[in-house]
Design brief:
homodimer; alpha/beta; Rossmann fold; 3 domains; 14 strands; globular
Chain lengths: ~450, ~450
Amino acid sequence: MMIKTLHLNRDKKKLELFLKKRQTDITEVMPVVERICEEIRINGDRALLKYTKKFDRWHAGKASQIKVTKKEMKEASRKVDAAFLKSLKIAKANIESFHERQKEGRKTWHQEKRGLIVGEKYVPLEKIGIYVPGGKACYPSTVLMNVIPAQIAGVERIIIATPPSPEGKINPYVLAAADTAGAHEIFKIGGAQAIAAMAFGTKTIPAVDKIAGPGNTYVAAAKLLIQQKTNVGIDMLAGPTEIVIIADEKANAGFVAADVLSQAEHGADSAAVVITTSGKLARDVRREIDKRIKEPDHSRVVRSDIIAKCLAENSIIIIVDTIDAAIELANRIAPEHLELQTARPWECMEKVRNAGAVFLGDYTPPSLGDYMAGPNHVLPTAGRARFSSPLGVDDFLKKTNFIFSDRMYLKQSQETIVRLAESEGFDAHAEAVRIRIEN
Amino acid sequence: MMIKTLHLNRDKKKLELFLKKRQTDITEVMPVVERICEEIRINGDRALLKYTKKFDRWHAGKASQIKVTKKEMKEASRKVDAAFLKSLKIAKANIESFHERQKEGRKTWHQEKRGLIVGEKYVPLEKIGIYVPGGKACYPSTVLMNVIPAQIAGVERIIIATPPSPEGKINPYVLAAADTAGAHEIFKIGGAQAIAAMAFGTKTIPAVDKIAGPGNTYVAAAKLLIQQKTNVGIDMLAGPTEIVIIADEKANAGFVAADVLSQAEHGADSAAVVITTSGKLARDVRREIDKRIKEPDHSRVVRSDIIAKCLAENSIIIIVDTIDAAIELANRIAPEHLELQTARPWECMEKVRNAGAVFLGDYTPPSLGDYMAGPNHVLPTAGRARFSSPLGVDDFLKKTNFIFSDRMYLKQSQETIVRLAESEGFDAHAEAVRIRIEN
């Protein structure tokens, strides 16, 4: 029941098989999710209360109770300790600094020549809904990573949806993070019903323009459905979290093992892949993982069963001949997280093409990036780093093209437009130019 | 059977009804599309040949014939006239100039402080598939608008899929445009089977990272499906084309009418909405449309039945009290195309929040933008301009976050990371920091 080791060249088939099984299947939950969404669309708050009672076991007397009050916010800030609040603020400052820089170059511009003006106008989205998982889980870092880029983009109204406890409470750490990050409203709703409520709008929940944030299969299915059935946007389709660690013979096996375990505690379906040029390191990493799991201290780690399952089923050590082969394999996997624990990490970085986020050197554990380095921790999964980017300011901004032409420029362009329009059989397109020039 | 006129204040209900019916429903075709995609996934080229025969009525002897040859490219360039080629080149130059400027600010950067380096690496996508509709339609402009931004982003391999005629031919205008724009390979495949082939890859068709380009309901359904079932990206979900024209009492009714007609010839399901402060202009526009439709010259326009249907069912003139009310309504509709035929179009532009592309003044017909002004003509539809942008260089680039920390920075950060990790119950995340500092 431990992490397996494969050789890139010797175990081609096994490796292919391992690399293939990475898609979350939402087909099974879709019929239920469709029913929930349809009911929210038709019955609004009434359906929302019904499903909150059913799934979150909270019986809210009326819809107005769904919104977190100022009093509740104050209570929460009293419940969390000063060290936590200080940590939030440090993290916030770093995340802000990164996303402020990211926003550079996102400014309205135009170019002008001989009577033609063309350009792009940048506008922040108006209303954003952010889903934050709840129940047993508590993710203040998710709140920061979603709300801060929206804030910096200039979104006017940022609402959070997060499921309540059976007593109708929201975790105080989540509320404190929402307050620190600058969310405008928080609603005690979860699951597919929360996504539908933010997409369609109810009397209590505002209809938003786009929904961001992670969630379970039901949430993922609801996001996919509303993207298909409504004109509300979503951030990305997120699969289970994953990491690839490239380590050479000089890497510290203890560090690698610790990062594998920190990846594994996310969930049994998360994946940790170590790619190394060193058979010795592979053995050392296995031994270190084994040692840590057996430590009495490890019993503290409530998630040890989850870790064991992740290691046995979704994790692997791959031995390759060269660092270049390691990077090539990582580019093919296009992992959410990529670590470069190699002698010359910046040289490797030059060759990295597909990854959500890269962690360079021995002293950059992913947990530094998860919580406070600044770059966003919402990253493309399941190979989507081949074509998509981490969450950021761009997800909360949009562009509008604009064009102005004077009569002279249009006249000069007439022949070109008419010729191209005619090739497509669009006579009225050509006519719209002619009438302006010939009258 | 003509375009109707409504008053914003008097006809609220009718207007709501009109504004609501804008979503393309792909539910009906989905089962067929699922079957086609699954067959392509399993049987590759064999299934591709089968469906090409079935839907495009072309019986290709073997899969290798699917690829357009250099000889065919040369033949095409002989078939198209010099004026067309010249027009293509002028359009290309403008489109390039706009997208080159758009790329500015998309450069790898980093910031450094006290042992922490964070940044973003920009990388072009590697393999792109572009769908170009075929059959009776012929859209060289679509080729330019999709291929050029991919080229400028630096995509290594740009392939085009476009359905063949029953003789296995591709329209020479499309081939000439593909050549001018710099596409690398062209395949004679269409419909859902083309999307599936580019997503899964077959012996003949390379598997791509992302698929762009417009198409019918089957193509749209296939794009949605592969986005859900595979880890291949898509550009956007496109609905029928639409325009909002804001016109004040000074606007030229003939110009407005011409633009309504040029919108209408796209298809019966396309929509033209005129919003005006002037009852007189509303009447004049109706009269001008009527006159044009009845002109003997109009019989030239093969699409007159399509135009009539679009005008009667999906188009409308709305009378409002003020230009501000017009802009507010346009922002709510968030149209693909927005025209500002007003006395002070730049002032109006300041207030435009949601639109794909804006055409300012009397001498900027949408056809100028469709073909050659430079900005992309692939625009968000069905209200998606509230949260998304026109196609552009950003769709063919992606970012990777990177983080480097030295031991000292990590040590200083330990408390913050540990406190936040503990609030989320992630002990191993905290441990990954501790082991690096305490050893």
